[in-house]
Amino acid sequence: MRLSKYFVPTLKEVPNDAVVTSHILMLRTGMIRMVSAGIYSFLPLGYIVMKKISEIIREEMDAIGGQEFHLPALNPKEIWEETGRVEAFGDILFHIKNRDYVLAPTHEEIVTYHARNVVKSYKDMPQIWYQIQTKFRNEPRPRSGVIRGRQFLMKDSYTFDNSWEALDRSYNLHDKAYRKIFDRCRLKYFVVGASSGAMGGTGSEEFMVKSDAGEDTVAYCESCGYAANVEVAASRIEGVKRKAESKSIYEISTPDVKSIDELCAFLKIDETQCAKSRIYVHNGEPVLILMLGNDEVNESKLVSVLGGNVRPGHPDELKEITGADAGSIGPMGFRGKIIADHRLKDANNMFSGANKNDYHIGGIDFQHDVKNVEYQDLRIVKSEEGCPKCEMKLEVFSAIELGHIFKLGTKYSEAMAAKFIDEKGEEHPIIMGSYGIGVERIMACFIEQHHDDKGIVWEKPLAPFDVHLIALNMKNESVASTSEKIYNELMQNGISVLFDDREAAAGFKFNDADLLGMPIQIVIGEKKLKDNKVELKIRKVNQRLDVDLTEVLNNIKMLFAE
RNA sequence: CGGGGUGUAGCGCAGCCCGGUUAGCGCGCUUGGUUCGGGACCAAGAGGUCGAGAGUUCAAAUCUCUCCACCCCGACCA
Q1: Count of the separate structural domains present in chain A
Q2: Does A166 lie in the same domain as A41?
Q3: Residues A225/A394, Cβ–Cβ less than 8 Å
Q4: Residues in chain A with pLDDT values less than 50
Q5: Which of A26, A136, A249, A460 shows its CA 20 to 30 Å from the CA of A146?
Q6: CA A265 from centroid of its chain's CA atoms
Q7: Distance from C-alpha of A113 to C-alpha of A76, rounded to nearest angstrom
Q8: Strand pairing report for A190-194 and A203-210
Q9: Do A104 and A208 lie in a common domain?
Q10: CB-proximal positions of chain B, under 7 Å
């Protein structure tokens, strides 16, 4: 492709609205342009990458027996009402104004609709159906460029099985296929396992990429591969050791002391001698949560311990509940349920609020002084804490969810009456699985992981072009004709070439080439041409080699063979 | 939905606080010429409903109000 005729509007300056690296680079390289919040046009260069990723996914899905569908984005609302998901999705679901249609945010309903009409016997299964198509979700807050959009390309597949064992097989096939896909896309990723009950499934895995632009926070152990969403992550951390001598409780005047840090400074004690109090309201009843020192309450863990409706107490109701404002609340004299974090179990000589403003109590013994206390793991795991599965340490960071595989079970087949007859002639709901991959997210994550201060650094599997050919001065006859020759020679040998045949200054072209980031650059200039040489530059390592004119093709083949 | 911020030429910005002639700058663009190995130079030029609407005023990019769009933080999230 000749750059002089190709629509690649590169940007020298960083666009105002872009913050995350991948978004900035996708805009600067002319891969995408925003049309509205969370809605992007893919320009030719970006679309090539999208097609390459799609093709990798397609190959791996076909390899496990997947059958590609083309499903409608416009869905009758009544199909979605069968599963109750019009309500479940709420405002996320786009509704069409002049007809009772919705824009599909995913395709469980449509696929189940087809299955129930045709998949009637155990002999009809297993089935793996997939599609790579645009999904629509009215995200309240699109962000990070293409990473969270209102319209995005998703590969989703659905499996139909006649037993739970068969579902396990379909699920494992996807697990393997996904690993191959992300490996082929040259992504560094990890897998977070979770037993998510909310959707009625029995198991799921998330494929994640570490990134500051991510919206999930995960705890990860590089050593053993333990990975968990921070909402459920556990860690190996010691509790407080009970002291031999146990003091009695006593009241201390602590004017203007609110935080644990202030309390420690005021009393010259360590934070591991303090019990921090938090008031939550559970189904209308106050609950006191006690944490060691500055440990934070993990509200997800709290919700799973308590069940029902849990919310933090409002500042203005604290005094009514405890007799004190935030900063002076504690277990002594608290009338209501008390739950303490495991680290506080059997602690003595502890300090906590007195439920009287500007007073704290010392010498608290959790064995004697705190009645009816229940101990639970309520902490938010932090970096550097011990991995629960091995001897190494955890790292906590944000991550982007690239893909999700999910054992759906019979939720949709039951709701939509998609049933089959087994060997004994009995009727059962089809057992389903659902598996998604965000195509744009692969693209964005790749760029997040493969760039430098000059621009993107593509690897061959996803690169829009294999080679960026730079003719330094097109007005020079021999430079122009040699460039044309090499351009044609490479193309005839199946190497895709972006040919910078524009009349522009050398520096301009070099910078564009580094920004666009094709794996190999070929630079053709007068000086080296006099010795029948051209320069090859390997973008990734910034290495340049002078190569004989006749050896260009061979060298490039060798470089790509590595 | 809550909090914060931005909106002026294709892009990045100044001007606004303290209202006052033809609204500037850099990049890009057009034409001509000179250059040609790391975002060149000279000359001439084109390009603006100052986000939209209403108001205050002799006079509004500038002050007031309403709305809209976009970004960030939070809430929410398949």
Answers
A1: 3
A2: yes
A3: no
A4: 195-200
A5: A460
A6: 40
A7: 11
A8: antiparallel
A9: yes
A10: 1, 6, 11-13, 26-28, 35-40, 69-78
Which nucleotide is at minimal CA–C1' distance from A475? B36
Determine how β-strand A427-429 pairs with β-strand A127-136: unpaired
> Among all strands, which nt has the closest C1' to A16 (CA)?
B12
How many CB atoms are located within 10 Å of the residue A473 CB?
18
Whole-number pLDDT of residue A202: 60
Output the distance from A12 CA to B24 C1' rounded to whole Å: 22
Distance CA A446, CA A211 (A): 11
Per-residue burial over A173-204, b if 16 or more Cβ lie within 10 Å, else e, is bbeebbeebbeebebebbbbebebeeeebbbb
Task: For strands A250-253 and A359-364, give the pairing.
Answer: antiparallel
Please name every residue paired with A158 in a beta bridge, in sequence order, or none if there are none.
A129, A434
Whole-angstrom CA distances from A34 to A22, A24, A73, A83 are 14, 12, 21, 34
Report the alpha-carbon angle A43-A46-A49, nearest 5.
Answer: 145
Q: How far is CA A224 from the centre of its chain?
A: 20
Residue A203 lies inside a defined structural domain of this protein? yes
Instruction: Write the pLDDT tens digit of every residue in A479-490.
Output: 999 999 999 999
A214 and A292 in a common domain: no
Residue A135 and residue A48 in one domain: yes
Q: Which domain holds residue A505?
A: 465-561
Residue A149 CA and nucleotide B49 C1' are separated, in Å, by 31
